Amino acid sequence: MPSSLSAALAPLDLPDTDGRPVRLGSLWAVRPAVVVFLRHYG
Amino acid sequence: MREHEDEITGAGAALAAVGLGDRAYASRFREETGIGFPLLVDEERRAYRAAGLKSGSLLHLLRRDNARARARASAAGHRQRRLGKDPFQLGASFVFAPGDRDLYVHLSATFGDHAPMAELVAAISADGDER
User: Residues with Cβ < 8 Å from A2, sequence gap 6 or more?
Assistant: First the structure.
């Protein structure tokens, strides 16, 4: 059981708009990150 | 969120968004808005499920807090565009830090329930004070 939400999300890879995979954990590996889950775009 | 990008990065944090729908939809959104921060696509809702994000329902449209949120958004000049893949999906805002620490968690209770920017910035700043 992950100890935090960030730990649960960190190993997931999602593509960016160019199709490049981004490991979610890389977003906050070096400095804090605000990660917003959208209902929809716009 | 895009109007707060400078405030967030100025506080020392990165900014990223995760959305549903497909890459083409996300690309069009990026082109239309010119946002510079990472915009990730979760077509299969893997991250949404891992984060425990819920869906609303038609009944949420009747909630008073939802009506107030719509009024605030409208007053700020925001307009509803395409609804997207799952119009009932609720969102969330997180501040995560190195070491997989959760500095701030806001799970939207209804449509238009967004994390106050001041709380996001405070979470970022508090972490900076501790380091």
Answer: A8, B100
Distance from CA of A34 to the nearest CA of B (A): 4
| Distance in Å, alpha carbon of A23 to nearest chain B alpha carbon | 10
**Interface predicted TM-score (ipTM) over 0.85:** yes
**Whole-number pLDDT of residue B54:** 85
Closest CB to A36 among B17, B97, B127: B17
Find the CATH number of the domain harbouring B33: 3.40.30
Task: Pick out chain B residues at pLDDT < 50.
Answer: none
**Mean per-residue pLDDT over chain A, rounded:** 92
Mutation site, B100, B114, B120, interface A, largest A CB count within 10 A = B100
Could you tell me the residue range of the domain that residue B118 belongs to?
2-130
What is the count of structural domains for chain B? 1
pLDDT of residue A22 exceeding 70, the answer is: yes
- Sign of the torsion formed by the C-alpha atoms of B38, B43, B44 and B48: positive
**Strand B92-97 and strand A33-37: pairing?**
antiparallel
Distance CA B112, CA B128 (A): 29
Query: Chain-wide mean pLDDT for chain B?
Result: 84
Q: Residue B15 and residue A15: Cβ atoms within 8 Å?
A: no
